[in-house]
Design goal:
A hairpin with a 2-residue loop joins strand 5 (133-137) and strand 6 (140-141). The protein is globular. The strands form five sheets. Strands 3, 4, 5, 6, 7 and 8 form a six-stranded antiparallel β-sheet that branches. It folds into four domains: 2-72; 93-185, Pdz3 Domain (Roll), CATH 2.30.42; 189-407, 2-enoyl-CoA Hydratase, Chain A, domain 1 (Alpha-Beta Complex), CATH 3.90.226.10; 412-511, no CATH class. It is of the alpha+beta class. The longest helix is centred in the N-terminal third of the chain and has 25 residues, at 2-26. It starts with a helix and ends in a 6-residue tail after the last helix.
């Protein structure tokens, strides 16, 4: 039986090799057929050896998958193989919707815990709250459930029903809810609100299928509320669809100007994206916040705005991903995502950071963020370019901000509090004990203080979780800890929007950025705002 399987396998590989040779002959400009046949013969030899002599029986599909992954690793950090199950999940994240009950959740101490119901979802309509614990699904215990199992059990076709048992902080007994699944939006605009009487704030977390539509809606709402300047937050936005990045930049840049262009090895990869007049919004001072987590599509937007002197880029140097991937489906439902082009900002900058020293270096290192003189610039070995107005900008390592603002670092103790989700859990408990706070968010925002009594309660809560309490680090991060406690109480009383409104009160990058709107107006040649 084993010899039959091996013969079938060898025959299959021979057929593949024959096809490759034919392709190599007919498409000689792509590769040498002789050389490809020779290398694939070597690959087949190794596969035969493994199947004949390896200590255990290894499924052929596992070996082929490993070989594909290894092959793509030789290209660049962003060319990857995506297995069928993962492909479905990734596609869903960027499509803008899925079908289910509509909750953001975490697994807290092996318990499925609601972070927030999604706006407009069946869960929100039924009154599910942040901090609610789903302890049973269809009468079966959900203790110890994995994220994959949550997806499987709570997602489902629109119109289907699922019954969950909820334990709510502050209530003595759990209760059942039967939820009818529906189409659930996946938002790109994580928050939008007025910071003050003039400045609107929009936080775009990723570039998905509906990003620009969401942005337009948020912008109109802020405009109706008197916005005369915009702070666009792209920190931590790792990218997404290139067309959405182009359309967002198009909102700010006059028609007929180059926003981004791509170059590849084949002519089909060479494309120019020019701005249009029909999408341009009224010209107001603009600041874009970026950091080391801003990549790809975020850098396209930031680079275009900077090169055309349309606004001010503030924060930290971005990640530096200047490669364009094309996703190509395979017959078994999987896909390969391979780099087909490099993209360039309007001034001609390639912002891709070097990955020649391996993945670890690529994901952990970066260029020096402060360039003080020509000598420093030469030392950093980054090419110099110029904006439309003649301002100096740099390529080869992300988007360098016009105004550098370092992000505040916190101690390991505070980091552990975040990883263990203790701010969130404490906020849930506190909110359930003080429901009266929910009457007025603006009053809470301006008058609620995390005082000694609240801090003592929080300390006791930490110790009840058997986490080592570090007094020195607690004192060092006291302002940050107070802010996070207040923000997570707000999240549990109202939702994510209110959480972000509290968070930015202590966000040093945001507060510093607000001081630079006169400069943003000057760069864009806006005299009245």
């Amino acid at each position: 039986m084993r010899s039959i399987r091996r013969s079938t396998f060898v025959l299959g590989v021979f057929v593949i090799l024959s096809i490759v040779v034919i392709i190599g002959v007919t498409q000689g400009y792509l590769f040498s057929a002789d050389n490809t046949y020779k290398q694939l013969s070597r690959f087949m030899d190794v596969l035969k050896i493994i199947r004949s002599y390896y200590v255990e029986d290894v499924p052929t599909d596992s070996l082929i998958t490993g070989a594909i992954q290894g092959m793509l690793e030789q290209l660049d950090p962003h060319s990857i193989y995506i297995e069928p199950k993962k492909l479905k999940e990734i596609t869903e994240q960027f499509q803008g919707s899925y079908q289910g009950i509509g909750i953001e959740f975490i697994i807290q101490n092996k318990v499925l815990t609601v972070v927030s119901p999604i706006a407009g979802s069946p869960s929100e309509a039924l009154g599910i709250r942040p901090g609610d614990q789903i302890i049973k699904i269809e009468g079966k215990s959900a203790y110890g459930i994995t994220e994959a199992e949550v997806q499987k059990k709570l997602k489902g076709p629109k119109g289907s029903k699922v019954t969950v048992t909820i334990r709510r902080p502050g209530m003595d007994e759990p209760f059942d809810l039967t939820i009818t699944r529906d189409k659930i939006p996946i938002y790109s605009v994580m928050a939008h609100f007025m910071i003050n009487d003039k400045v609107g704030y929009i936080y775009v977390g990723r570039f998905a299928q509906t990003t620009v539509d969401e942005f337009d809606k948020a912008y109109r709402e802020l405009q109706a509320n008197g916005m005369t300047a915009l702070l666009l937050d792209l920190r931590g936005n790792t990218g997404g669809y290139l067309d959405q990045a182009f359309k967002l930049a198009d909102r700010f840049i006059d028609g007929g100007k180059k926003i981004v262009f791509t170059k590849g090895r084949i002519p089909e990869s060479n494309t120019e994206f020019l701005s249009t007049d029909r999408a341009t919004i009224p010209k107001i001072p603009l600041i874009i916040l970026i950091d080391k987590g801003s990549a790809s599509a975020s850098e396209i937007v930031s680079g275009a705005i900077q090169d055309w002197d349309r606004g001010l880029i503030v924060g930290q140097t971005s990640f530096g991903k200047g490669l364009v991937q094309t996703q190509i489906p395979l017959s078994d439902g999987s896909a390969v995502r391979i780099t087909t082009a490099r993209y360039y900002t309007p001034s001609g900058r390639l912002i891709q950071r070097s990955y020649k020293n391996g993945l670890m270096d690529y994901y952990t290192s970066g260029y020096d963020e402060i360039v003080k003189s020509e000598k420093d610039q030469k030392h950093n070995n980054r090419p110099v370019f110029y904006t439309h107005a003649g301002r100096k900008v740099y390529g080869g390592g992300g988007i360098t901000p016009d105004v550098k603002i370092k992000n505040k670092t916190i101690t390991k103790f505070s980091t552990e509090l975040i990883f263990k989700r203790l701010f969130f859990e404490f906020g849930s408990r506190y909110a359930s004990k003080h429901p009266g706070l929910k009457k007025n968010f603006q009053k809470f925002k301006s008058t609620f203080v995390v005082d000694k009594m609240v801090l003592t309660e929080f300390k006791n809560f930490i110790q009840s979780k058997k986490m080592e309490f570090k007094e020195d680090e607690f004192k060092k991060d006291l302002a940050y800890i107070k802010l996070m406690i207040k923000a997570d109480i707000a999240r549990n009383l109202w939702g994510s929007k209110e959480y972000y409104q509290i968070r930015i009160l202590g966000d040093e990058q945001v507060q510093e950025a607000l001081k630079h709107f006169p400069e943003a107006a000057r760069i864009a040649k806006i005299t009245v705002w």
